[in-house]
Amino acid sequence: TGKHEATTINGWLRVVKSCIGDGRAELELANPAARVKPLPERPADKEGLTPMELRAFLEAYDHQETKPLVEVLAKTGMRWGEASALRWEEIDRERGVIKVQRAHYQGTLDLPKNGKKRTVPMSPTLARILQEHRQRLIREQHPGLSEGWCFATVPTRGKNKGKVRLRYPSSIVKPWKRACEASGVKATRHDLRRTFVDMIRLVGGDPIVEHEVVGHADESMRRRYSTVRAEEAAKVVE
């Protein structure tokens, strides 16, 4: 069983144990699910990027249509499903925040992971990037703009040809690969979220603030996403 599969199965196992436990508790009976042991989970083998790697990657990413979306991932720590489902009404330039109201997964819209909406800060740099992106959509009279979506696309072939659709991760595969090759940085889109978590810690951000901004379910997720390098540990010891 792979790391991600084991993590998913163990998550569902915790839900089952909890549900059965509640029912058994009312009847004063033992919980049979409590005897089921979780699958072993291998430690994460991925690391976040360094600030220099992140900058090099973003500078090398050259796909105009999806670069603003990638910038949102890098500068807010949002999950793909959350960023790809953003609407313009949820970007508040006056307050400098983005409201995360929903998530998109394989054509289905639902609440963000953990079932909680949240608000994340938006840097002036990201606000400028999104404003320029919106102006380009207006010039092109993009159909997705009229429907309120920030990063929608209109397929030119297939069963959804000509229809406004939210983007899938597959839409950035080729430009992502080009950026990795051009910058010499090996990264996945989820590494941007890991990197954002690291950046909050490196600037001395409070764990509670990080929890609210990134939307982690609990402390274990925070540890899983953190990359503590030798030089950082040495600095603390000094």
Order of helices and strands: HHHHEEEEEHHHHHHH
Q: What about the largest sheet? A: 3 strands, antiparallel
In which order are the strands of the major sheet placed?
1-2-5
Mean pLDDT over the full residue set: 80
* Broad structural category: mainly alpha
Q: Give me the count of strands.
A: 5
Strand residue percentage: 5-15%
User: How large is the count of helical segments?
Assistant: 11
Poorly predicted runs: none
- Residues in helix, %: 40-55%
Alpha-carbon distance between the two ends: 41 Å
Global Rg: 20 Å
Shape: globular
Word description of this protein:
The protein has 238 residues and is mostly helical. Helix content is 50%, strand content 7%. It contains eleven helices and five strands, in the order ααααβββββααααααα. It has helices at 3-27, 51-60, 67-76, 80-84, 124-140, 143-146, 173-183, 189-202, 207-214, 219-225, 230-237; strands at residues 91-92, 97-100, 103-105, 108-110, 118-121. The chain has a three-stranded antiparallel β-sheet. The protein has a two-stranded antiparallel ribbon with strand order 3-4. α2 (51-60) crosses α7, α3 (67-76) runs antiparallel to α5 and α3 packs parallel to α8. It is globular, with a radius of gyration of 20 Å. 23% of the residues are buried. The model has no long low-confidence stretch (mean pLDDT 80).
